[in-house]
Amino acid sequence: MDSTAPHLTGPMHATAGSQVIGVFTTVAGAALWVAQHWYLVLPAAGALWGVGEIIVRRLAVKASAERMALELEAARHFDPGLEEIFRRGVQLARASTSMPWWAPRRTKAVQIRLRADGSSPLRYRIEGPVGGERLLSITPFGPDVTVTRTRPITDVPRKHTVRAEFILRGKPIAPLREVPLQPDPLQPLVDAVCDLRADLGDLAEIRLDIQRAPKWALRARRLHLLQAARRSEHREAQRAVRWMRRDATGIEDSLSHQLLQLLGPQHRSASQGRRLVMPPVPRRIDPAEALGKLAHDDQLVRAQLLITCASHVQGRAEARLGQLQAALDVFGGHSRWAMRGLRIGPWRLGADRWPSRQAFERRWRHGHCQPPRPNWVRLEELTGLLKPPTLHCRLPLLAPELPTFEFGNPALLLQGIHRAPDGRRRLVATYAAETLFECAVGKAGGGKTERALAQAIGWAHADGGLLFLDPHRDSWPRAAPFLAHAPLMDRIALIDLNTVGPAPQISSWNPLDMHQRPAAHEVVEAVTDAFAAALGWEDATAPRALTLLTAALSVLTAVNQAACGTGRPEDQATLFQVRSLLTDPAFRTAALSATADRLDEETRSWWQSIFPTFPADAFGVVLNPLARLAANPVTRAFLGQPRGVYNIRAAMDHRMIVWVCPAGNGPTDRLLTALLARDLLRAVRSRRDTPEDQRVPFRPYFDELITLTGAAPETIAAMFEDFRKYKAHVHGMTQLLARLPGPVRMSLTQNASTLATTAGSRTAISAITAEWGDNPSPDQVAALNRYEHYATLTVHGRRLGPLRLQGPHLDDVFADLARPGNVAALEHAARTTAGTRPLHQLTTHAAGQLDRVTAFLTQHTPAPAPSSRPDTSKGYQ
């Protein structure tokens, strides 16, 4: 057996060797044939590649046609955490694979689109496979982000367009810079597009495509990186050996070494021992260090970043691209986003030039992900781009979001001057139909009254009706030059209760006037509630006063109804006849007799059976405030006329401009203010008799709310709660929100469409900034300049702000409207419309009103019928 073994194995080895040689020969022959016939092979290979590329492109276009788009809109308080954002990134990466099996890899991507065209600060859209819609629609952000299915955006061609593709430069294994979430990582991009102008056709759009990294490409890249690391380590070891040899050679040539050689063998051996060194061994490569962020497959994606900027104006698109390039530098560290292309002098060979432009357009149009470089990133590196703008992002205010004020447009209400990021200033406004209530807070002289006057003047010139109630009268001289226009003079009425000049002119008002046929019970209720609010009457503390005044007013309104019904409105009773009704038996008897058919049985029975039981000192609580009103000649003249000219309901319906200036802030003035406020509430509520679409908008302006609410807190609170239904919109101004009564303050902040504050102390301002979540902080508001203010506005049902606005100054905003030469004519027309007369004439006429009412009652008292019942008139004494 042993002798035959070599004989058997020899032929087998020979056969195997001949086979290897044959294969090698065949391969060498094939390679030689290809080398000799390359002119045939290359066109065939090119044709095969071209056919394959055509097929792949058609499949990719077909797959891209099945993509869908979602738009994400974040709430104002949107503030996600890192974990929520990371989970969103995982969803995007997973959704990128939700494509049919035949779809090419370039279509298996999800695209994030950040778009700004002047219509909104930054629109955040997600586009991806239809199969991933359900995965993309349900976000980990919860209800703070609204996801809406949208249609593809069709852009109008612009005259000038620039394109750019950004790739990762620097260390391929190094991550991008870790950008914190506060401030928002999107802030640099938002700032780059904050001055876009839609009227110039400006457009800027960033598209980030995310695609799962292919396994085979990752393995090849890792192998290449490890080999490069080993080669680098070997080069370092060889360099170290060379330096060691050079050092050793230097030692042998030194003087000390030569001296040791001369000393003898013993010293020569010691010198040789010291020269003995070990050559360095190449350091073992650490895969984690060599591969960096590519060491692990999890949450590793391939990214493609494309940008397009366009405009109708030459140069704006190029400048915008430069701003976006600078914004992307914020994400740069050892690895950074850099624009692809080669710059040669003033030209850049990139996405805007051949041959890259065609490929760029194809990827942009169909959403294909084909970056020229791998651009591998981890999801943590893209944190800032995986979510919409958050609470910490300062978004610009664009023209479409807040309309520009147009003089004479009744649909707009002036709010202030906004300064855009590029320095442009424009008058901004809110829609009048949406501005239901306003509140302005700030220190004296800060500009809140000036802003209200500018708004009121603009509204008046737009044919709007208003009431400006100013306890200090300073507003009228300030506004008069801008209202002194012929078309407005017939609509303006000045109710000035300040005795200005040697012959003061006073208007008149009878709260009990029934000439316009208001509901008698509403008039009684309004006057009684005004007294109760100003004097602090309640059912528990002053039931007798409320009862007496209500009963007396019921009789007097019945008397006035009778006087107007017989065509004698000049014989109507006023508030000052309450005293005669309670204390004069003859007058009381005549009044009850003349109104017997107008009073119900219960009221007549009360006067006959209950009233006689009241002691004489019970009337003082009612008569004392009336005595104070009568003692003041101005209020006596204003309230003592039978037929008043002041009629706020008629002013509303006829778009009148009414300026009311009470005389002061004393107890008498507060009672008069309470009467005016309660009458306004009654008049507005009486508009229920008019169909809603026929109610004329009316705007009461209340300067110094602290003074007004001190007289009628519940009345002012009810205005902020009810007036919206009747198209009466209150604008209130106050120095301190905290000094307003609780019901007024709560109604005001709850219903205010516009909430504004000028500068002031931190303590006073904190009540407003607390409503805004202290953004801006009280310190920021306190540092405002004069006429500057922060305000929240309501536009299209959405709250804007707080915005920093420059308050409108009349001399700047309405300089063209000033007519100081017409102020005297305006004063005369406004007082004529208000029916003013000299104070002494009105006082004399008011003093004789009791006699006229008594004469009317005497003439219209029916003769008494014979009766066996005893005479009870003595019971009234």
Notable characteristics:
877 residues; alpha+beta; nine-stranded antiparallel β-sheet; nine-stranded mixed β-sheet; 32 helices; 44% helix; disordered N terminus; disordered C terminus
Explain what the structure shows.
The chain is an alpha+beta fold and 877 residues long. The protein is 44% helix and 16% strand. The protein has 32 helices and 24 strands. The strands form 5 sheets. Strands 1, 2, 3, 4, 5, 6, 7, 8 and 11 form a 9-stranded antiparallel sheet that branches. It has a 9-stranded mixed sheet with strand order 16-18-15-19-20-14-21-22-23, with helices on both faces. Strands 9-10 form a two-stranded antiparallel sheet. Strand 12 and strand 13 form a beta hairpin. Helix 16 packs across helix 17 and helix 17 crosses helix 18. It is elongated, with a radius of gyration of 45 Å.
The description of the largest β-sheet is: 9 strands, antiparallel
Helix content: 40-55%
The counted number of beta strands is 24
Residue share in β-strands: 15-25%
Tally of individual helices: 32
Any idea what the radius of gyration is? Answer: 45 Å
Look at the structure and give the mean pLDDT: 86
Alpha-beta content class: alpha+beta
Low-confidence stretches: 1-9, 865-877
What's the shape?
Answer: elongated
